[in-house]
Amino acid sequence: KIDSNIREELSLADPRQGGGDFSMATMISDPIVSMVHEFCVLAKRAISEIDENEEAETEAMAHNLKVAGVMSSLASFVRNAPENTYVNPYRPSQSPQHEEASHSCRVALLPALQEIESLVKNTILTPLTRVLNSHVATVMSKMHRSGAYLQDPRDDGSQATSFVQIHLVDQFDNIASAYLTPLPNEYASIVASTVATFSIYSFVSNAAMIRPLGEASRLRLTQDLADFELSLEQLVFKGGTSLSLSQIAGGKPYSELRAMRQLLFWNMLDDKTLSPAEVAKALLRETWVKDVRPSTLFHFLFSFAPTLLTSPHHFKRMDAHQYVGAMIKLDGSVDDGEASAWMTTMACCDAYQQRESVDGSMADGDRRVGAILMILGPELLRRRRQ
Fold it and tell me: How far apart are CA 170 and CA 131, in angstroms?
């Protein structure tokens, strides 16, 4: 009924019905924009508020998804009304006047479409993605709590499974079936993209903080990265977006995910004759370095360090997942956390330098790591700002 009312209102400016003045199409669009505004005000009142600790399978969330569907239908009516009113009824003999009236009307109705998009994004999609990402972060925390990559899989007979298969595949499948499927494609793609971006950054950051990271752990993590990429590809596909995982957020999360595989098998520290400066320069020349966040590289290098070089999250007296959560916001943004990560890394290195004299009798770890970090940090942050 709303669709027919919109088209009936717009038809008053139909060139074949005496509405040949194009300014009339713009004038008649104003009441429709006002009607959409009133509709948005009522819809906002109908939206249920949720918090990040609330179970996502609540009636409130189901209700909000239905409201999103209604708003999508309204946006579709408004978006298609000019074409359906002035052009389609007269195809194939529509006149240039019809095309011009349709264009004028589309421009005049843009504020209505923008208001609908803003309402849905700010009051439905953003809270939804924050809840979903907080649940993903909780699952990611098991990477450290369960010591998933610190155990020899032969000890518990779990060599046929992986952390991703056990904990994350079902999580992503549930997100797709419970939240992406009920949403219209244009909204589902936003949720899928945001969840995928957050998940990649969170997984990579958690993996980089595993310490110690032995050869068997690297092999298992490499396999999990492949499984993780496949799971996210399926999530994005079910989100209805035409973008692939490699195109989301400008391709930066995916590039880091791919670069992580190469980072895992970087072995320049095996050459004990190289100075810290030589190792740092060689590392900066690696082609994949530009694709990883500085914090990822910093935290990965701690896995080679002596025990007395405290890990950043231990220095901050936090669990690893809490430290990662402080770096990566629930909307998937990461830039604010990079400067903080470097400040913490510097503090760790400074504390280590004060203890280094005590470390003479200890043979564990590579004593060059602290100096390498101090050389790398400023250069990596400078590159990131450019």
Answer: 17
